[in-house]
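Memo to structure team: turn this sequence into structure tokens by end of day. - J.P.
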Amino acid sequence: MPPRDRRIAAISARLTAVGLEPELKEYAHYTSIEARVPDSSPVESWSEVLAALETADGFGLADSAARGRSLWATIRKSVPAATSAAETPHEQL
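Reply from structure team:
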């Protein structure tokens, strides 16, 4: 398994281990790992969630009254020559 795929699998497994249901979405330049975070998510699980997310190329949390709370992590498909601060649609939230 290529290193990129191992990273995606590892993040997904760690999120699953804390009770989340990660979903993979493929985009032109990156793969996004997304999961809804229930309000009942135990505070103790957040250290593991953050440890998993920090291994990604980018990550974040969206919290809205309309859509609830969800997290995302992105893994680039290739290493760009130069990276901008708002490379993915998620990062512009």
